[in-house]
């Protein structure tokens, strides 16, 4: 005689606290598992957005919507277990080991995805405004850049197979503090000579590759809108670099802080020759960005990935 199986209510509640949506696999309700998983993902994204732009005194400063699942999931799973219909077909995941296995496999896949392929970041500062503003979420494509990290832990480092182009927005480890990630736009490639004078970028491309056009260029820009006031004095420009178009922000009345620029021996104060294996980066908020002008070049093995989506 086959024994009638029924989920243990106490174990359902425990899974609800520890594994949250996965508790509903144990009680044989895959539909509820899918529903709670979607709700958890959306609430986590909402939490990131709210806390990235959180100011002191905000109602959500000490609250996370995802915390609600620590209460709702165990209670709901407990009630489902108590009212479980033993006549329904039992799926393989409706067991303690099936639930744990499902959770572990999902966690491993998520870690692999985040480490080697795509990782979300929250923009904490305005140095890339107006392209990416403080509080915006970004998705970074990491595969091919060789610097594979998970929450600051180095998992693997290989030689990059992806080409980096002028105009790319990249995430990288800040050279002066590698545990900190920065987001900037690539302006100079290895071998390029980059100058920044009177708020204009000049680039003399490297001539190492004979197929490359080595003609010196001035990065063009045109006015989009002028927000000139007594306090902001800000103008938005559309800038064009190697076929890439993007918006930058300038304070036209603010002088370039060339006296604070990173000085490279053998060059002018506002000129830099990008070494092999390095990149020159700048923020789109030109007068409010701590970038290569001030601290130097980004090593190729410090690149994490390219920004592919922003919201």
Calculate Rg over CA atoms. Answer: 26 Å
Distance between the termini: 58 Å
CATH architecture call of the largest domain: Ribbon
Mean pLDDT: 92
Number of helices: 6
Can you tell me about this structure?
It comes from Paraglaciecola hydrolytica. This is Signal peptidase I. With 311 residues, the protein is an alpha+beta fold. The chain folds into 2 domains: 9-107, no CATH class; 120-310, Umud Fragment, subunit A (Ribbon), CATH 2.10.109.10. Helices cover 24% and strands 29% of the residues. It has 6 helices and 16 strands. The protein has helices at 9-18, 23-26, 30-52, 69-82, 96-116, 292-295, and strands spanning 118-122, 137-141, 147-150, 153-157, 169-174, 177-188, 193-197, 200-204, 217-218, 220-227, 234-241, 244-250, 271-273, 278-282, 298-299, 303-310. The strands form 4 sheets. The chain has a 7-stranded antiparallel beta sheet with strand order 1-2-16-5-6-14-15. Strands 9-8-7-13 form a 4-stranded antiparallel beta sheet, with no helix packed on it. A 3-stranded antiparallel beta sheet has the order 10-11-12, with no helix packed on it. A hairpin with a 2-residue loop joins strand 3 and strand 4. The protein is elongated, with a radius of gyration of 26 Å. The N and C termini lie far apart (58 Å).
Search tags:
16 strands, Umud Fragment, subunit A, 2 domains, elongated, 311 residues, four-stranded antiparallel sheet, seven-stranded antiparallel sheet, alpha+beta
Task: Give a brief outline of the structure.
Helix 1 (9-18) runs antiparallel to helix 4 (69-82). This protein is 24% helix and 29% strand.
